[in-house]
Amino acid sequence: MRTINFDTQLLRSFVTAVDTGSFVAAADQLNMTQPAMSQQMRRLEDLVGQPLFRRDGRKLAVTNAGDMLIGYARQIIAINDQIPEGLGLGSRTEVVHIGMPEHFSESLLPILIARAHEHFPNVQLVVKVARSGALAEGLAEGRLQLALMLGGSPSADDVAAQAMPLQWIRAESFDPTRTGDVVPLVLFRAPCEFRQHATKALEQAGQRWHCVHEGDDLTTLRAAVRANIGVTALPVIQDYTGLKRYSDNDGLPRLPDIHVRLKRHEAWKSRSANALCGLVEQVWKSFRH
User: Fold this and answer.
1) Nearest-10 crossing angle of helices 64-86, 8-20
2) Of all helices (H) and strands (E), which one includes residue 116?
3) pTM higher than 0.85 for the full model?
4) Which of the listed CATH numbers 3.10.310.40, 1.10.10.10, 1.10.1660.10, 1.10.260.40 matches domain 8-86?
5) How confident is the model at residue 214 (pLDDT cuts 50, 70, 90)?
6) Is the confidence at residue 143, as pLDDT, over 90?
């Protein structure tokens, strides 16, 4: 019987494809192109002599042969990753893809990177800053291992969740009495939970509103508010120069709380996963107002 040698890189790609359910997501996680991932899986199937994957609707599923191989592949990779440490060569660097909204990028992100570097020297963070909807998609597709998101209802699969006040924000020079009969709003483009809460609160209070500016990111939204053309509704993670929170007697209705939720991809089970989740939770909770 001829000896078949299985390349650990092929097995690592195979395990990642199974865990993410997608060649595209697996390639993204392993920092390779999708054609390279597909070529690796064809090479592995040539070694095994039969198909390893089948299509189950839009999701990638394994065949019986793939189901048998996955157990061996996980064992081989685990042993392979123990060898450098056992020989005193240092541990293999783990690349962790984490996502967060722009609201946290100026305050939380530098501290998180510094603490992760201090406590997890063998972990390389790759951070994606985007709106929560895009982060949820990245997490579901396996392109992110961890995501800090704003909005939505807490669920049982959240690593952690915490209520945070949503507040009316204006320029320091903006006169609260200027809103008059129609409130000028600076809003994120729909769909946006902050937008929904702001407009619903005004309508329930019998106050008319009109949108004076729409933006896709926090930077342009803050710039529009600083330009004194209107007010907006945001969770205040930190204070920003030139911007001020409305007080309760400034004439606008109270806004509901929103939730900050930390979510983790179910297939992310590395040795650093639990501790890194705890670090992210600890850092973001220190910024609550």
Assistant:
1) 120
2) helix 108-119
3) no
4) 1.10.10.10
5) very high
6) no
